[in-house]
Automatic annotation (TrEMBL):
Keywords: ATP-binding, Cell membrane, Disulfide bond, EGF-like domain, Glycoprotein, Kinase, Lectin, Membrane, Nucleotide-binding, Receptor, Serine/threonine-protein kinase, Signal, Transferase, Transmembrane, Transmembrane helix. GO terms for cellular component: plasma membrane. Residues 340-421 form the Apple domain. Gene3D superfamilies: Bulb-type lectin domain (2.90.10.10), Phosphorylase Kinase, domain 1 (3.30.200.20). This is non-specific serine/threonine protein kinase. Its main location: membrane. GO terms for molecular function: ATP binding; carbohydrate binding; protein serine/threonine kinase activity. It comes from Carya illinoinensis (Pecan).
Length: 552
């Protein structure tokens, strides 16, 4: 959902008040034994940010905060958000091992202290909006004893990190203001929710309201908004020491921008428009109702451009009555129960927002086949995918419960491989000798299911020199299996319009009609929208049989 210009202006007005008209600027820093009184401010060297005491509306509650120097007061950080000062009795005092926010120059309301005495401590407001405590003779970032960038309120500035410092245990998140006049911690928290498979979540109290993720190496799955663009560059870092999200502004010298979580729970990327003299929402993460958490229930897929919720193929509404009344929260259930070691396979779904509750199996460069095999071995594994979360080239991610909070994208999105029962589909499995078992009144029928990788290797990836004909149903290729058996592979046309079940039924029919004088159907292979029939190859058999014989 995109906010209207009225709502944007309303939010900007709510987050703005006038700075103290009598404020006296000290400099960009406090040194040992110096005091910043209410009415005085620190201003960064480039005149971008200002630190001082402020209040909201007609309230007498005072807070120590940071705002933009040359814009009508827009607060980006608050020190004592949960402990206000009554009246103008507050001061900021600099000591030898830290600094304190004092009431009436004596009562300590908030403080930052170090475990050692600093030789020449200074508290400095930098031009990126970061308030830092450091040794004056150690200007490096690593020399910061403390920084406000590690104590985020409702605003993420360029260079701020949302996430974990795994070395120190520090966890940074954003929390909304309680109201327009009250900067104390509000109802909404925006954060990364797991260093293993990090995703962005908006939580109200303890309830998830929105989710974007996990990170797939390019973007957070489920959000095409947080991608590189002409205005800002989103960045994700994952190492043994840190896992965090941040962003950089392309034109940092002239463009002011910030991410905010509003008191109403909107996540917005705002930029300052000099021409209109206002904050403009360039990005709002919540685009439509499909972004709301778990809109379609388990195994339901949300569509922004069509009927809101659809069951994934192979699933049916848990309550058809509710579904017909547009009550989708109950989700969907399988048409056929899984049988684990008795022929389960996977179906690939493209253009997906990956489900919630993912688990990282191994963080190293894995192949899709190995990831599939790992999931297939675990009867509790319901789905898997391979994405580059941590920059290792291939992270195997699995899901072990119901698949929830999915969304379909007309373009973009991620691939998801969902476990299906043998009765639901004929799938290309990792092992070329797995069988599809079909119960009939007369007999049990066994049909071999060939791995796509095996078929590709046998036909030299459907090379032109292996092509032996072309018919109305598609081309035919000669191939050789690892067992040295020669085969003929009929690659059926993709525009046949048939689904997996129809394909499977007709393959079974062909098998039943086989005669000893006819070419033997060895099996089939299905992968995505590929449909293939694998026959025994006989050099003296008429090519017409392969091209125009029993087929679908």
């Amino acid at each position: 959902m995109v906010l209207s210009p009225f709502l944007i202006l309303w939010y900007v007005w709510l987050s703005s008040v006038s700075p103290p008209s009598t404020a006296a600027t000290v400099s960009d820093r406090l040194t040992q034994n110096q005091v910043l009184e209410d009415g005085q401010t620190l201003v960064s060297s480039g005149q971008r940010f200002e630190l001082g005491f402020f209040s909201r509306g007609n309230s007498s509650h005072r807070y120590l905060g940071i705002w933009y120097k040359n814009i009508t007061l827009t607060v980006v950080w608050v020190a004592n958000r949960n402990k206000y000062i009554s009246g103008q009795s507050g001061s900021l005092s600099m000591g030898s091992n830290g600094f304190s926010l004092l009431l009436n120059n004596s009562e300590k309301l908030w403080s930052v202290n170090t475990t050692r005495v600093l030789e020449s401590p200074i508290l400095q407001l930098l031009d990126n909006g970061n308030l830092v405590l450091k040794e004056e003779n150690n200007p490096d970032l690593e020399g910061y004893v403390w920084q406000s960038f590690d104590d985020i309120t409702d605003t993420l500035l360029p260079g701020m990190k949302l996430g974990w410092n795994l070395k120190t245990g520090l966890y940074r998140n954003m929390t909304s203001w309680l109201s327009a006049d009250d900067p104390s911690a509000g109802d909404y928290t925006f954060s990364l929710d797991s260093p293993e498979t990090p995703q962005l979540v908006l939580i109200k109290g303890t309830q998830k309201k929105y989710r974007w993720g996990p990170w797939d190496g390019v973007r957070f799955s489920g959000s095409n908004e947080l991608r590189s663009n002409p205005v800002f560059t989103p960045m994700f870092n994952s190492s043994r020491e840190e896992v965090y999200y941040t962003f950089e502004v392309i034109d940092q010298e002239s463009l002011l921008s910030r991410f905010v979580v509003t008191q109403d729970g909107w996540i917005q990327y705002l930029t300052w428009s000099k021409s209109s003299n206002e904050w403009v929402a360039m990005v709002t993460l919540q685009r439509d109702s499909c972004d709301r958490y778990e809109t379609c229930g388990p195994y339901g897929n949300c569509y922004s451009d069509g009927p809101k919720c659809n069951c994934l193929k192979g699933f049916t509404p848990k309550s058809p009555e509710d579904w017909s009344r547009i009550i989708w929260s109950g989700g969907c259930v399988r048409r056929w129960e899984l049988e684990c070691e008795n022929g389960d396979g996977f179906v690939k779904y493209g253009g997906m927002k990956l489900p919630d509750y993912s688990h990282l199996v191994e963080s190293r460069n894995l192949s899709l086949e190995i990831c599939e095999a790992e999931c297939l071995r675990n009867c509790s594994c319901m789905a898997f995918t391979l994405i580059d979360i941590h920059g290792s080239g291939g992270d195997c991610v699995m899901w072990f419960g119901d698949l929830v909070d999915m969304k379909h994208f007309p373009s973009g999105g991620d691939d998801l491989y969902i476990r299906m029962a043998k009765k639901e589909l004929a799938a290309c499995l990792n092992h070329p000798h797995r069988y599809l078992m079909e119960e009939t009144q007369e007999e049990d029928l066994e049909l071999a299911l060939f791995n796509l990788k095996t078929v590709l290797a046998a036909t030299d990836e459907f090379s032109f020199r292996n092509k032996i004909g072309q018919g109305g149903f598609g081309p035919v290729y000669k191939g050789v299996l690892p067992s040295k058996q020669e085969i003929a592979v009929k690659r059926l046309s993709r525009d046949s319009g048939q689904g997996l079940r129809e394909f499977k039924n007709e393959v079974i029919l062909i098998s039943k009609l086989q005669h000893r004088n006819l070419v033997k159907l060895l099996g089939c292979c299905v992968h995505g929208d590929e449909r293939m029939l694998i026959y025994e190859y006989l050099p003296n058999k008429s090519l017409d049989y392969f091209l125009f014989g029993l087929s679908i």
